[in-house]
Specification:
This protein has three domains: 55 residues, no CATH class; 69 residues, no CATH class; 76 residues. It is built from ten helices and eight strands. The chain has a five-stranded mixed beta sheet. Strands 1-2-3 form a three-stranded antiparallel beta sheet.
Protein backbone atom coordinates (compact mmCIF):
# COMPACT_ATOMS: atom_id res chain seq x y z
CA UNK A 1 0.00 0.00 0.00
CA UNK A 2 1.16 3.53 -0.79
CA UNK A 3 0.09 6.85 0.82
CA UNK A 4 -1.29 7.98 -2.55
CA UNK A 5 -3.70 5.06 -2.51
CA UNK A 6 -4.90 5.92 1.01
CA UNK A 7 -5.45 9.54 0.03
CA UNK A 8 -7.26 8.60 -3.16
CA UNK A 9 -9.59 6.28 -1.22
CA UNK A 10 -10.31 8.98 1.35
CA UNK A 11 -11.14 11.84 -1.01
CA UNK A 12 -14.81 12.55 -1.41
CA UNK A 13 -15.86 12.90 -5.07
CA UNK A 14 -17.91 15.91 -3.97
CA UNK A 15 -14.76 17.73 -2.80
CA UNK A 16 -14.34 20.60 -5.25
CA UNK A 17 -10.56 20.44 -4.79
CA UNK A 18 -10.46 16.80 -5.93
CA UNK A 19 -8.81 16.77 -9.37
CA UNK A 20 -10.71 15.59 -12.39
CA UNK A 21 -9.25 12.55 -14.12
CA UNK A 22 -8.33 12.83 -17.83
CA UNK A 23 -9.87 10.34 -20.22
CA UNK A 24 -6.66 8.84 -21.69
CA UNK A 25 -6.52 5.91 -19.26
CA UNK A 26 -4.55 2.80 -20.19
CA UNK A 27 -3.34 -0.24 -18.29
CA UNK A 28 0.25 0.18 -17.18
CA UNK A 29 2.71 0.22 -14.28
CA UNK A 30 2.52 3.19 -11.96
CA UNK A 31 5.84 4.98 -11.50
CA UNK A 32 4.76 6.09 -8.01
CA UNK A 33 3.43 2.85 -6.52
CA UNK A 34 4.88 0.18 -8.80
CA UNK A 35 1.43 -1.41 -9.18
CA UNK A 36 -0.19 -2.37 -12.45
CA UNK A 37 -3.62 -1.01 -13.27
CA UNK A 38 -5.43 1.98 -14.80
CA UNK A 39 -2.82 4.67 -15.52
CA UNK A 40 -2.31 8.05 -17.12
CA UNK A 41 0.77 9.49 -18.85
CA UNK A 42 3.42 10.34 -16.28
CA UNK A 43 3.93 13.73 -17.91
CA UNK A 44 0.40 14.66 -16.85
CA UNK A 45 1.57 14.56 -13.22
CA UNK A 46 5.30 15.22 -13.21
CA UNK A 47 6.89 17.92 -15.33
CA UNK A 48 10.45 18.09 -16.60
CA UNK A 49 11.50 19.83 -13.39
CA UNK A 50 10.72 16.73 -11.30
CA UNK A 51 14.04 15.29 -10.12
CA UNK A 52 12.92 13.15 -7.18
CA UNK A 53 12.95 9.83 -9.00
CA UNK A 54 14.59 8.09 -6.05
CA UNK A 55 11.28 8.05 -4.17
CA UNK A 56 9.39 6.36 -7.01
CA UNK A 57 8.71 2.63 -6.92
CA UNK A 58 9.11 2.27 -10.70
CA UNK A 59 11.12 5.31 -11.82
CA UNK A 60 11.52 4.05 -15.40
CA UNK A 61 7.78 3.86 -16.03
CA UNK A 62 6.18 6.63 -18.08
CA UNK A 63 2.75 5.99 -16.50
CA UNK A 64 1.14 6.94 -13.17
CA UNK A 65 -1.93 5.35 -11.63
CA UNK A 66 -5.22 7.19 -11.39
CA UNK A 67 -4.88 7.06 -7.61
CA UNK A 68 -1.41 8.65 -7.69
CA UNK A 69 -2.58 11.28 -10.16
CA UNK A 70 -5.55 12.32 -8.03
CA UNK A 71 -3.70 12.17 -4.70
CA UNK A 72 -0.63 14.11 -5.83
CA UNK A 73 -2.62 16.73 -7.70
CA UNK A 74 -4.88 17.25 -4.70
CA UNK A 75 -3.52 20.58 -3.49
CA UNK A 76 -3.89 19.92 0.24
CA UNK A 77 -1.60 16.87 0.01
CA UNK A 78 1.19 19.37 -0.64
CA UNK A 79 -0.12 22.61 0.85
CA UNK A 80 -1.08 21.45 4.33
CA UNK A 81 -0.18 19.16 7.16
CA UNK A 82 -2.49 16.17 7.17
CA UNK A 83 -3.37 12.72 8.44
CA UNK A 84 -5.11 10.08 6.33
CA UNK A 85 -6.38 6.58 7.09
CA UNK A 86 -8.00 5.70 3.79
CA UNK A 87 -11.42 6.81 5.02
CA UNK A 88 -10.75 10.41 5.94
CA UNK A 89 -8.17 12.98 4.88
CA UNK A 90 -7.86 15.62 7.61
CA UNK A 91 -5.96 18.85 7.20
CA UNK A 92 -4.07 19.87 10.34
CA UNK A 93 -2.68 23.09 11.72
CA UNK A 94 0.20 22.97 14.20
CA UNK A 95 -2.12 22.42 17.16
CA UNK A 96 -3.88 19.68 15.19
CA UNK A 97 -0.55 17.97 14.55
CA UNK A 98 0.28 18.21 18.24
CA UNK A 99 -3.05 16.69 19.24
CA UNK A 100 -2.63 13.88 16.72
CA UNK A 101 0.88 13.08 17.95
CA UNK A 102 -0.17 12.99 21.60
CA UNK A 103 -3.42 11.05 21.13
CA UNK A 104 -4.35 7.59 19.92
CA UNK A 105 -3.76 7.00 16.20
CA UNK A 106 -6.29 5.49 13.77
CA UNK A 107 -6.99 1.77 14.20
CA UNK A 108 -6.36 1.09 10.49
CA UNK A 109 -3.38 1.75 8.19
CA UNK A 110 -2.59 5.46 8.17
CA UNK A 111 -0.01 7.99 7.10
CA UNK A 112 0.68 11.57 8.01
CA UNK A 113 2.72 14.61 7.05
CA UNK A 114 3.65 17.76 8.97
CA UNK A 115 5.01 20.71 7.05
CA UNK A 116 6.00 24.32 7.56
CA UNK A 117 6.96 24.97 3.94
CA UNK A 118 3.77 23.80 2.19
CA UNK A 119 5.70 22.96 -0.97
CA UNK A 120 6.58 19.26 -0.93
CA UNK A 121 4.61 16.14 -1.76
CA UNK A 122 4.26 14.45 1.61
CA UNK A 123 2.66 11.39 0.03
CA UNK A 124 5.89 10.53 -1.79
CA UNK A 125 7.78 9.95 1.45
CA UNK A 126 5.29 9.38 4.25
CA UNK A 127 5.40 5.81 5.58
CA UNK A 128 2.32 3.68 6.12
CA UNK A 129 1.72 3.02 9.81
CA UNK A 130 0.06 -0.03 11.30
CA UNK A 131 -0.62 -1.25 14.80
CA UNK A 132 2.06 -0.06 17.22
CA UNK A 133 3.83 2.11 14.65
CA UNK A 134 3.64 5.90 14.73
CA UNK A 135 6.09 7.40 12.26
CA UNK A 136 5.49 10.95 11.08
CA UNK A 137 7.00 12.67 8.09
CA UNK A 138 8.11 16.13 9.24
CA UNK A 139 9.22 17.99 6.13
CA UNK A 140 11.76 15.47 4.79
CA UNK A 141 12.60 13.80 8.12
CA UNK A 142 10.99 10.66 9.50
CA UNK A 143 10.07 11.01 13.17
CA UNK A 144 9.40 7.80 15.07
CA UNK A 145 6.85 8.51 17.81
CA UNK A 146 6.10 4.82 18.43
CA UNK A 147 7.61 4.83 21.93
CA UNK A 148 4.83 6.80 23.59
CA UNK A 149 6.52 6.80 27.00
CA UNK A 150 9.65 8.34 25.47
CA UNK A 151 7.61 10.94 23.60
CA UNK A 152 5.72 11.84 26.77
CA UNK A 153 8.96 12.15 28.77
CA UNK A 154 10.61 14.44 26.21
CA UNK A 155 7.43 16.47 25.92
CA UNK A 156 7.37 17.06 29.68
CA UNK A 157 11.02 18.17 29.72
CA UNK A 158 10.56 20.58 26.81
CA UNK A 159 7.37 22.08 28.22
CA UNK A 160 8.93 22.57 31.63
CA UNK A 161 11.86 24.44 30.07
CA UNK A 162 9.51 26.53 27.95
CA UNK A 163 7.51 27.56 30.99
CA UNK A 164 10.65 28.45 32.89
CA UNK A 165 11.19 31.16 30.28
CA UNK A 166 13.39 29.55 27.64
CA UNK A 167 11.69 30.29 24.32
CA UNK A 168 11.34 27.83 21.45
CA UNK A 169 14.33 29.23 19.47
CA UNK A 170 16.54 28.71 22.52
CA UNK A 171 15.30 25.17 23.02
CA UNK A 172 15.86 24.39 19.34
CA UNK A 173 19.43 25.72 19.21
CA UNK A 174 20.49 25.47 22.87
CA UNK A 175 21.96 28.94 22.36
CA UNK A 176 20.78 30.78 25.46
CA UNK A 177 21.57 34.50 25.86
CA UNK A 178 23.25 35.48 29.11
CA UNK A 179 20.43 37.80 30.15
CA UNK A 180 17.92 34.95 29.86
CA UNK A 181 20.12 32.72 32.02
CA UNK A 182 20.30 35.48 34.63
CA UNK A 183 16.57 36.08 34.51
CA UNK A 184 15.47 32.45 34.64
CA UNK A 185 18.36 30.99 36.57
CA UNK A 186 21.66 29.44 35.60
CA UNK A 187 20.95 26.20 37.41
CA UNK A 188 17.69 25.66 35.54
CA UNK A 189 19.44 26.22 32.23
CA UNK A 190 22.35 23.93 33.03
CA UNK A 191 20.01 21.13 34.06
CA UNK A 192 17.99 21.43 30.87
CA UNK A 193 21.05 21.79 28.64
CA UNK A 194 22.58 18.65 30.16
CA UNK A 195 19.40 16.73 29.33
CA UNK A 196 18.94 18.23 25.86
CA UNK A 197 22.47 18.07 24.43
CA UNK A 198 22.47 14.35 23.55
CA UNK A 199 18.97 14.68 22.06
CA UNK A 200 19.14 18.00 20.20
CA UNK A 201 20.06 16.63 16.77
CA UNK A 202 17.37 13.96 16.67
CA UNK A 203 14.28 14.25 14.49
CA UNK A 204 12.03 13.68 17.51
CA UNK A 205 13.57 16.58 19.44
CA UNK A 206 13.13 18.97 16.49
CA UNK A 207 9.58 17.80 15.91
CA UNK A 208 8.53 18.24 19.54
CA UNK A 209 10.10 21.71 19.65
CA UNK A 210 7.96 22.64 16.66
CA UNK A 211 4.86 21.40 18.49
CA UNK A 212 5.46 23.40 21.68
CA UNK A 213 2.77 25.92 22.65
CA UNK A 214 3.11 29.40 21.21
CA UNK A 215 3.47 32.48 23.39
CA UNK A 216 -0.19 33.25 22.69
CA UNK A 217 -1.20 29.82 23.95
CA UNK A 218 0.91 30.32 27.08
CA UNK A 219 -0.72 33.69 27.74
CA UNK A 220 -4.16 32.11 27.36
CA UNK A 221 -3.16 29.44 29.90
CA UNK A 222 -2.36 32.18 32.41
CA UNK A 223 -5.66 33.96 31.71
CA UNK A 224 -7.74 30.86 32.28
Amino acid sequence: MHPAQLIYSALNPADTDRPDVPSDIETGVCAVTGDEGPTLPRKDLFGKSFTDGAVLAAPDSDRVSVAAYVALRYKWERMSSWICDGETFSRLDRVGVRNAVLSEPPDRPWCTYATTSYKKHGALRAPINGVGRRVWLFESRLVDCSDTDLVADWWVHLNAALRLGFGRPILETLDCPTHIMRKVGLRGWMEFESWALPRRNTALYSFLCYLLPSQKELRNEIMY
